[in-house]
Amino acid sequence: MREFLVEITTTVPEGTGQDEVDRRRAAEAVRAGELAATGHLDRLWRPVGELRSIGVWRAADEEELHEKVLGTLPLRPWMTVTVTPLESHPNDPGRVEGAR
C-alpha cells in the first residue's frame, strides 16, 4: 500500500442538530478504529488550537483512498480534504531497506 498525508477540515453545516453531530462523531470514531485495524489509517494528529486533522493514511492508490477509505467516513460529507502522496526519503531514519 502507498502512504498519503491527508489534511482534513470538518465543517458542520449550519442548522445541523447536536444529536446528528454526536451520532456522526461516534460513528466516525468506530470507523477510524476499523480503518486502523485494516492498515488504512496509520497515524492521526490534531494541530494544537486547530479544528483540523493531519494523518498518514494507506491505500493501493489515490482512487482507493478517496472512494473506499475516506469515502466511508461518516463525517466525509462535511469534510474538506487535501491529499499529498508520499514516498520514502533516502535519509528517513525509519526507512525500510529496499523501500521506494
Brief summary:
This protein has 100 residues and is of the alpha+beta class.
Short descriptors:
four-stranded antiparallel beta sheet; 2 helices; alpha+beta; elongated; 100 residues
Note down, in words, how this protein is organized.
With 100 residues, this protein is an alpha+beta fold. Helices cover 28% and strands 30% of the residues. The protein is built from two helices and four strands; from the N terminus they run E-H-E-E-H-E. Strands 2-3-1-4 form a four-stranded antiparallel beta sheet. The model has no long low-confidence stretch (mean pLDDT 95).
Largest sheet: 4 strands, antiparallel
Helix content: 25-40%
Q: What's the total helix number?
A: 2
Radius of gyration: 15 Å
The count of β-strands is 4
Shape: elongated
**H/E series:** EHEEHE
User: pLDDT under 50 segments (min length 5)?
Assistant: none
Strand content: 25-35%
Average pLDDT metric: 95
| Strand arrangement across the biggest beta sheet | 2-3-1-4
Structural class: alpha+beta
The end-to-end distance, rounded to whole angstroms, is 12 Å
Break the fold down into its secondary structure elements and pairings.
Layout: E1 2-10, H1 18-37, E2 41-45, E3 52-59, H2 62-69, E4 79-86
Antiparallel strand pairs: 1-3, 1-4, 2-3
